[in-house]
Fold these 2 entries.
Entry 1:
Amino acid sequence: MINVADYLEAAAAKVDAGVWCYFEGGAGDEVTLRANVAAYGRWRFRPRMLVDVSEVSTATTLLGTPVASPLGVAPFAMQRLIDPEGEVATARAAGAAGVLMCVSTLTTSTHAEIAKAGDGPRWLQLYVLNDRARTIAHITEAREAGYSAVVLTVDLPYVGRRERDLRLGFQNPPPNLHLPYANLFENSPALTWRDLEWIRAEMPLPLVVKGILTREDATLAVEHGADAIWVSNHGGRQLDGVAAGLDALPEVVDAVAGRCEVYVDGGIRRGTDVLKALALGARAAFAARPFAGGLAVGGEAGVASVLSILRDEIELGLGLLGCTAPDQVARSHVEPTLPYDLLA
Ligand SMILES: Cc1cc2nc3c(=O)[nH]c(=O)nc-3n(C[C@H](O)[C@H](O)[C@H](O)COP(=O)(O)O)c2cc1C
C-alpha cells in the first residue's frame, strides 16, 4: 500500500460491491467523475531550483484555524457502511494528524461521539432540512462538540441519479443504518440565497459555501457573507457534465479577488494534485474517496496511512518545487499542457 490508488483498489476488492458502488460511483455517464481526475493531468509544474528547502512545512491555516496540511477530509456520508467505527475512526486519524475533518450531516456517529474521539480541527457540513428547527438544533449540537465552521452544501436540491447504485440495488438511505441528524430526502430543495442569509444571521460560526462552480455564484456567495467558497461538483455525483473542480477553480478565484478563502475538491489522488490546486489559487483542497478507501481497508489505521502518504507527497512536492510552505505555491509554478495551450 504505497499510494492512494493502492487503497482504492484494495477497498473495491474488500467491500461488498453493492455498498462500494455508493462510495466509488458518480451520476449519469460519470463524465464529470472522470473529468475530476483527468483535469490534474492537464497541468504541469514549473519548479524552481537552488532554493533552500532544508525545512519544508505543510502547515497552514483555514479560516484562522491552524492545520497540519492544506488537504482536508471532505464530508462523506454514512461511514459505518465501510467500518464499524465509521466517522469516529476517521476523526481519530484526522485529529492525530492535525488535519481538518468536515463531518457530514449524514454522519452515522453523533457529534458528541466524534468529539470524544479526541481533539482535532472539525467543521460541520450542513444540509438544510425542510424542518428549520431541526437544522438549528443540528448546528447547535455541532458547536457544542467544538466544530468551528459550518459548510453549507448547495449542490444537492435533488440527489443525482447514480446508476451504479441502481444497478446493484444500493438503497439510500440504507435500512438499519442509524443517521442521527437526517437522511438525504429531508434536504430542502427549496433552498435559495434568502436561506443563506437566514443561516448567516442565525449562526455565529464562519460560513463556507460548498458546491460553487461559476463566477456568478461565487460573486453572490461573497455578497451574501460567505467566509469561504468551496469549489466542488460533489465528486461527480450530482449534475453530470459540469466542469471538473480544478477547471472551475480559476474563474471562481478571479471573481472572489481575494475577498474570501477558496477551496477545491474532486479527483485529488496525489499530493502533487493538491499543489496544482494551490497554484491555481486554492487556499486548500479536500478529498473524500481516498479516505473512504483508507477507512474501508484499515479503519482508523487505514485513514491514518492515507493521510500520511498524502502529507508526505505534499511535503516532497513542495521541496522539489522550490517552496518551503503551502502559501509559497504561486500561479507561476504551473502551466497548462494541451489542450489548454490551444484554447489560450
Ligand atoms: C460516498 C460519498 C459521500 C458523500 N457525502 C457527502 C455529504 O454527505 N455531504 C457533502 O457535502 N458532500 C458529500 N460528498 C462529496 C464530497 O464531500 C466531495 O465533494 C467529493 O467526494 C470530492 O471528490 P473525491 O471523492 O474525488 O475526493 C460525498 C462523496 C462521496 C464519495
Note: The chain has one domain: 4-343.
Entry 2:
Amino acid sequence: MQLVPYQNTIEHVSHVSGRGYWSGRAVSLTFLPSEPNSGIRFRRVDLPGKPIVSAHVEHRRDTQLRTTLVQSGAHVEMVEHVLAALYALQIDNCIVECDAPEMPGMDGSALSFAIALERSGLRRQLAPAKMVSICAPIRIGDESNYLLAIPSRDPGLTIRYVLDYGPTSSVPKCESTLLVDRETFTTEIAPARTFLEEKDAKGLQSRGVATHVTYRDLIIFGDHGPIENSLRYQDECSRHKLLDVIGDLSLCQHRIQGKIIAHRSGHNLNGRLAQELFELTDKQQMRKAG
Ligand SMILES: [Zn+2]
C-alpha cells in the first residue's frame, strides 16, 4: 500500500536578492511559510495593499521567453525558475514576497533559489498533498515542438527533454532525462543556466532590453560555443529547458505522477499542458467523489 504524502511548507524564512534580467531592476525575495492548501503565492510588497498573485495556470499570460502571472491587475514575471525550485523541493505552500515585478535572474539558473529553500527546511503539514496522475497520454503541439505526457510506473515526475534547433543553430543538440525529486534537483537540474544565441541576445539589447546582462550572466552561444563562458554539464541546455518545464507545469498546483517527453517545447506549450493537467485534477476529483 502506498502511503499518502503530506503537504509541506518551509520551516524558516529565507531571502534571495538580485536584478531582473529584462528590467535590470533590483529585487529582493522573501520566502515565508504558509498554511495548508494555500499553494504558492507571490506578494507584491512594493504596491499599495500588497496584492497577491497566486501561482495558478489561470493567471498565466504569454510573454516572450518567460512566464508571467497576472491577478487583479498586479503581475509577476520570470517566475519559472523560482517555481521549479519550490516544486522540486516539495514545497506546496509558500508566500514569495517581492519588491519588484520581475524575479532576479541570478546566474540564469535556479541554484540560488534551491539553496535558499533548502536552508529554509521543510515542515510537514497535516493535509494530504494534492496529486494529479497521468492515466492516459496527452499530446500538445505539432510535429517538431511538442509535449507528450504519459503514465509511468516510476514514482513522481520524470521528464525527458530533447533539444534540437537544427544544423544552423549554434546551440548544440542535446537531451536529458531526469526524475524530479529533492535529491537530484539541487545537483542535477537547478545549476543549469538559461541560454541564448548571440544574434538573439544582440537583437534584444538593440531594442534596449537586458542591456546590463553580460556573457557571464547566462550562456550566449556564438559560432564556436559559449562566449567567455563554459558549460556546467555537456547537456546543460536541455537540463535548463527541463527546469523550465518543471516550473511551468507546477502552475497546475498539484504534484504530478507520470512521465513527460518534451521536444523543443517552450513556455507557451508548457503552460498549455499545465492547463490540461489542472483540468484533469478536476475530473479525477469528481471520479473520487462519485
Ligand atoms: Zn528558464
Note: The first strand starts at residue 6 and ends at 10.
